[in-house]
Amino acid sequence: xxxxxxxxxxxxxxxxxxxxxxxxxxxGGCTRKDGGKTYREKDITLDVAKELARQISSAYPDVTVVLxxxxxxxxxxxGRGKIANDAKADLFISIHIDATKNxxxxxxxxxxxxxxxxxxxxxxxxxxxxxxxxxxxxSLDEDKPAGFDPDDPAxxxxxxxxxxxxxxxxxxxxEDVQKEMRKGPIKTDRGxxxxxxxxxWVTSMPAVLIECGFLSNDSDRGVFKTKEGKEKIAASIxxxxxxxxxxxxxxAGNVQEEQSVQPAQPVKEEILYGVQVMASGKxxxxxDKTFKGHKVTIVKTGKLYKYILDAGPSExxxxxxxxxxxxxxxxxFLVKTDGNYTEMVK
Length: 346
Description:
Blueprint: E1 2-4, E2 16-21, E3 31-34, E4 37-40, H1 41-59, E5 64-67, H2 77-86, E6 91-98, E7 108-113, H3 122-135, H4 156-159, H5 161-164, H6 167-181, E8 189-195, H7 198-201, E9 207-214, H8 218-224, H9 227-261, E10 272-280, E11 296-301, E12 304-312, H10 315-325, E13 333-337, E14 342-345
Parallel strand pairs: 2-5, 2-6, 6-9, 7-8
Antiparallel strand pairs: 1-14, 3-4, 7-9, 10-12, 10-13, 11-12, 13-14
Helix pairs in contact: 1-9, 6-9
């Protein structure tokens, strides 16, 4: 099979978005007491999700907005993905609130499916702690897929290929969210991450998980305590959605226009086969130590740079290289490229 990136954006406009309010029911998520009142992640995420849904529906009445939950009920992580898949959603947005014993930690972060690669970074342990906390409820789920272990970072490798076809769009939307959330009300930016969140594994569309801030931090919690603060967070995500939808729909229209006006032209560019190991909004040097001495081909698509190792004219050789490269980059996959586009080859 051959998969194109991006896929839906070439043929459709955004018609359906699924918004997931993290936790719910007996799963309260993180909690903190303040002024005699207990604040719970499940309540805050529901408020933000419902306000985001309201803003999208108001601005785009032709877009179907699906909530994985609209009340204080428990929905399994796999169940949330099934709701999005059954609705044939074009985008999945999961809303969460962070917490840690370190009360000075603050700010928002955005996560796409993947496995953090550099285990020597100071933030790696923090990031995996976040994953374990958000995935912990998975032990309560009855529909756990075989092979999933929320305490084993390596288990993400088994499922990561499922979302690779949507990685580019997911990262683009994540960057849109990052840009808008920097404007406040919580301005501290902890970055865009690739992480093994189970709720992202089971979706078959571009998907992000947003940690809106820290309930354990006095400043961030001050925002979550007020209706206005939660509405502003929802507004930030809505503005990102607006940017993403405008780009998404515009790309679809441009493709349709080009197809109706321009005759097909033969492609004479040399096709190379290689192993894609990552896509990032940051441009790295071809000699960066991340690539372990491999020959690197960089293909820019939109705001993203795709990094392809040991590209050459032989598909057979590329498949042989893939076996070796996956030992260092478990998420790697086979692609072909002419230098302007990349096509995932199964």
